[in-house]
Amino acid sequence: MRFIASTAGIMASRKDTSSKDISADERVYAAIASALLQGKLAPGAQLVERELAAAFECTRGTIRKVLARLGAEGKLTLEANRGAFVPSPTVDDIREVYRARQVVEAGIVASLCGALSVKALRALRAHVKAEQRALKAGSAAECVRLAGHFHVLLAELAGAPEVEAFLARLVAKTELYKALFDPSKLSNCSSDEHAQLIDALEQGDLDAALTAMRTHIDELEARVLAQAGASRTSDLATIFALA
Ligand SMILES: [Zn+2]
């Protein structure tokens, strides 16, 4: 799987993000991250430094730096002497990451249940409103960002920075899985389900809150897994259509 579709995807995103106000590094980073999160890059596609440098009219040094950053964030797979690739997770890889989310987020729910301040509840509800606005506006990138951030915000409110950092990494992985295997829907999280969870947390109903979180993550996982084995054929069709 080479770079033809990938270039088209990135070039499309590049228009959205180019601005003289941000550095070349940030511009290239934002464009590639956005193309990944919008499912424009096929699993396993190689990101070739030379081709990216030409596409973005920047140096290979800039591209190398950006690819290293995306690799460190788990958004790309870096292979010594081979280069950077869009991750191509197996079904077992995917299950493992959602399982980790279930364990971590059950702990977060338990520590927050019945313990959220008025200010924290207000922030969570404002976040859900922002999700609804983004969905209405059809803003895919914003929907994905806000959906993931809701979960990280809960970890932040739990006051555990180590857990927050760990969860942010897990959420980034699942955002990517959603983009790779379930790119058709705008958001990977339903704002209604987020609202139900907030209600249960506010009421201090631990059973309801744990069930709400578990069901929510189960559904995200099920949608990704349903497509994980089937997406390659349609990706090839897309690649040839764009070539
Ligand atoms: Zn969610």
From TrEMBL:
SUPFAM superfamilies: GntR ligand-binding domain-like, Winged helix' DNA-binding domain
Transmembrane segments: none
GO molecular function, one term: DNA binding
CDD domains the UniProt entry points to: WHTH_GntR
Recorded superkingdom: Bacteria
SMART domains in alphabetical order: FCD, HTH_GNTR
Gene3D superfamilies: GntR ligand-binding domain-like, Winged helix-like DNA-binding domain superfamily/Winged helix DNA-binding domain
Keyword Transmembrane part of the UniProt annotation: no
Keyword presence, Transcription: yes
InterPro entries: GntR_C (IPR011711), TF_FadR/GntR_C (IPR008920), Tscrpt_reg_HTH_GntR (IPR000524), WH-like_DNA-bd_sf (IPR036388), WH_DNA-bd_sf (IPR036390)
One Pfam family linked to the record: GntR
Keywords: DNA-binding, Transcription, Transcription regulation
Residues of the HTH gntR-type domain: 22-89
PANTHER family: HTH-TYPE TRANSCRIPTIONAL REPRESSOR NANR, TRANSCRIPTIONAL REGULATOR, GNTR FAMILY
Protein name as catalogued: GntR family transcriptional regulator
